[in-house]
Design goal:
This protein has 12 helices and 18 strands. The protein is α/β, with parallel strands linked by helices and 352 residues long. Strands 3, 5, 6, 9, 10, 17 and 18 form a 7-stranded mixed sheet that branches. Strand 17, helix 12 and strand 18 form a beta-alpha-beta unit. Helix 5 packs across helix 6. The chain is globular.
């Protein structure tokens, strides 16, 4: 089969490799869509401590069941399915406390399991057992099903800060994750969603995702703008959806008293700290939470939200490409020229 093989930083090559075997109790997936994530760009540029090379990356995956392994009773051959990225063990202390995203033995497609930038991918029985295989509803494309994973991560973040009906929400960042956060906040009943961005082109694109107010932070003071928009109170929920330390500090300033802050965007390993006025956290009685990956149950809920139209991703995918164009697709995301690019491994040039 053909696969995009990560050989090391800056080196991703499409090559003919042996087909995987269908694992007992599992199956082989014929991958029809594997969306490229920002973490794939980071892996391509800098490598990852979570994987050895050569390796097949890609973790936002949808396809059809192509071969059943011995003893696999579900799903059926030919079924259209979406695969959750992160699979908890279900047995460790964290899983026992309901903290599946903090599982001590968590495994992820594209990192611990070979990923979806290949014509075929093995799906192991533990993935099925932990609820990581989801039937794709009729009428939903493989491409839209594949972008379930980032939406599930966004759902995890907003559940942790309990975005709810009546909230005034600020989303800092107009990239793909920021735009998903806008839609999720609206879907969860927020009264007002304000989106901040410093890049004019990204801000113009973000208009398609339904924020009530867009603020160009390079042209006006976001603090004053948010205060004016919220009658001086600030936001109930502030989501920092960028890898920039200054936005975490800004989130503290934008929050209302008793506000909730999501530090959703991770910072670069070379500069992982930010300077936050903890007196403001103290006197405004703020809650700050981190957010990492998602659970299989959140993945299933996110897929349902896409399929039922609660989340409208009709403007989210810029293009579908083939395996031969993967490096070009990584470049589009790296330069901020696309929100989401999806790879169809069944085609050299892409297509639906």
């Amino acid at each position: 089969m053909r696969a995009a093989i990560f050989q090391g930083p800056g080196d991703l090559q499409v090559a003919e490799v042996p087909e995987p075997e269908a694992p007992p109790g599992g199956f082989l997936l014929r991958v029809h869509a594997c969306a490229i994530c920002g973490s794939d760009v980071r892996t391509y540029r800098h490598g990852s401590s979570h994987l050895a090379t050569p390796w097949v990356i890609g973790h936002e995956i949808a396809g059809e069941v192509a071969v059943l392994g011995e003893g696999c009773e579900w799903p059926e051959l030919g079924a259209r399915v979406q695969i959750a990225t992160a699979i908890p063990c279900g047995r460790c202390r964290a899983c026992g406390r309901g903290w599946q995203t903090m599982c001590e033995r968590i495994k992820a497609h594209g990192f611990h399991y070979p990923g979806g930038l290949a014509e075929l991918m093995a799906v192991n029985p533990e993935v099925i057992a932990m609820g990581g295989v989801n039937p794709i509803p009729d009428g939903l494309s493989y491409e839209l099903a594949a972008v379930t994973e980032p939406l599930a991560c966004v759902l995890n973040g907003q559940q942790l800060v309990d975005t709810q009906i009546g909230d005034h929400v600020v989303v800092i960042g107009g990239g793909p994750i920021g735009c998903l956060h806008v839609q999720m906040a609206k879907a969860r009943g927020a009264t007002q969603v304000i989106q901040l961005e410093v890049n004019a082109a990204r801000l113009a694109r973000a208009k398609e995702f339904g924020a009530d107010l867009l603020i160009d932070s390079s042209q006006q003071d976001p603090r004053a703008a948010v205060r004016e928009a919220t009658d001086g109170r600030g936001a109930d929920v502030v989501i920092s959806a960028t890898p920039v330390a200054e936005t975490q500090a800004l989130a503290v300033e934008l929050a209302s008293v008793c506000g909730r802050i999501s530090l959703f965007g991770g910072l670069p390993p070379s500069a992982p700290t930010s300077v936050i006025n903890t007196n403001t956290v103290h006197y405004k009685q703020l809650t700050m939470v981190g957010s990492f990956t998602s659970t299989p149950a959140q993945n299933a809920e996110a897929l349902h939200m896409i399929a039922t139209g609660r989340i409208d991703l009709s403007h989210f995918i810029d293009s579908t490409i083939g395996l031969d164009d993967v490096v070009a697709g990584l470049g589009l995301l790296e330069r901020g020229e696309a929100l989401k690019v999806v790879v169809n491994p069944q085609s050299s040039t892409g297509g639906n």
